[in-house]
Amino acid sequence: MQRTVIIDALRSTAFDQPINVRGWVRSRRGNKQVSFIALNDGSTIKNIQIVVDLTKFSEDELKPVTTGSCISATGILVPSQGAGQAVEIQLTELEIYGTADPDQYPLQKKGLSMEYLRTIAHLRPRTNTFGAVFRIRHNMTMAIHTYFHQHGFFNFHTPLITASDCEGAGQMFQVTTKNLYNLKMDANGKIDYSDDFFGKQTSLTVSGQLEGELAAMALGKIYTFGPTFRAENSNTPRHLAEFWMIEPEVAFIQKDELMDLEEDFIKFCVRWALDNCMDDLEFLNQFVDKGLIARLQAVVNTDFVRLSYTEGIEILQEAIKNGHKFEFSCNWGDDLSSEHERYLVEEHFGKPVIMNDYPKDIKAFYMKINEDNKTVQGTDVLFPQIGEIIGGSVREESLDKLNAEIERRNIPMKDMWWYLDTRRFGSAPHAGFGLGFERLMLFVTGMQNIRDVIPFPRTPKTAEF
Ligand code: 4AD
Ligand code: MG
């Protein structure tokens, strides 16, 4: 018989008709007359109840039906007698696909810690929490593609292996086929890459922006959506070594329009979650973060604050004057740390902040320099609980100014001649940003650790699964 997915079975009104569902057993309980199997197939957070009449099935037949086992259940769909579900299935035919030894299956108990579940990341998608997180993750992917498609952006695929360091932070994982036990050095003791696979030193990309800018100078509005890699040794709840980034790049827009795009885009994604993921959000709101749904609704309905870095520093200094203690200093020119960002967003304003016009020395080389020659048109979005969720900027479109900045910073541009060609041939004002997909996921799910919103996290000293 053809399988019905449980999300459809639960909505069905084809009562007294045969139906077949397949999935993993969440629990089995009952008494001498009747046994109840809670079955889940991942299509929804909700289980369907299978009712087993023990005059028709023997204990022996039911013995393999333990938590974690996989079964196919055929029966008659009926309105449920009990509370908690609209329909249930009276079992007529049972097939066991795979057993799960109760003495060994790790997901027997409820309330397992997030830390423990990370050690069984190959099984954790079968829990309610991770099922919800990964269904929402899919929905956020759809929201992102939908938003850009509806707004006339083209999805553009940028390379993962690259010879350039976009952010200039030197946090790149090298890619090589060289024999690390027998490295050839040149006369200066430097590694000779001429005989390496690509004939030069290459790494995994930290950002698709540079290639994205090339595309925007031809297609007008593009976005990338792919994995990015950072070898930063930050063991925090907000950093991954492998994360997904969405990077739109748009020709002919200025700073205000860039900030409009950042705000509109995030709100669209959050609204999508509220419109399409309510069952999962309600579960997370109940068991993970009681303020979640209210916070999502608040963000959709609020105007983000737009604040220059200089104004931000003034507010922080005022707070210090009034007795607020920060661990790190915050004088003009300092990179704000997350305690500063969180003070502004959570305590001072109580809503998201788009901070802009940063000192040029704490930002990347490609940002457009303001008239004051001290600040650049960066536009980062800071979120409650998360801190920086978007990093963006207007790009410097003048070849002379860009070259001067590259020289000032001593950036090796030998392998980036192609990037400078955008400024040489038909340069145009343009701007873009990068949204950290897992940071968005943290916000939308209320999960506390970034390791718990990606299926198989890569962090310092962990690359299991
Ligand atoms: O601020 P970042 O470094 O900006 C860029 O890479 C630009 N090239 C983007 C652009 O303008 N096209 O990174 C962008 C975002 C951050 O705001 C943050 O959300 C996320 O990427 N991010 C990380 N997420 C998880 N783990 C990490 N280690 C991250 N580093 C950055
Ligand atoms: Mg940044």
Could you list the spans in which at least 5 consecutive residues all have pLDDT below 50? none
Name the beta content range.
Answer: 15-25%
Contiguous helical run count: 13
Task: For the largest sheet, list the strands in their spatial order.
Answer: 6-10-11-16-15-14-13-12
| Estimated radius of gyration | 27 Å
Residue share in helices? 25-40%
Mean pLDDT: 96
Description of the structure:
The protein has about 475 residues and is of the alpha+beta class. The protein contains 13 helices and 16 strands. It has helices at about 5-10, 60, 115-120, 130-150, 210-220, 255-275, 280-285, 290-300, 310-320, 340-350, 400-410, 415-425, 435-445; strands at about 20-30, 35-40, 50-55, 70-80, 85-100, 155, 160, 175, 200-205, 220-230, 240-250, 305-310, 355-360, 375-385, 385-395, 430-435. The strands form three sheets. It has an eight-stranded mixed sheet. Strands 1-2-3-5-4 form a five-stranded mixed beta barrel. Helix 4 crosses helix 6, helix 4 (about 130-150) packs across helix 7 and helix 6 (about 255-275) packs across helix 8. The protein starts with 5 loop residues before the first helix and ends in a 20-residue tail after the last helix. The mean pLDDT is about 95. Bound molecules: 4-amino-1,4-dioxobutan-2-aminium adenosine-5'-monophosphate and magnesium ion. The site of 4-amino-1,4-dioxobutan-2-aminium adenosine-5'-monophosphate has 23 residues, from strand 11, strand 15, strand 16 and helix 13.
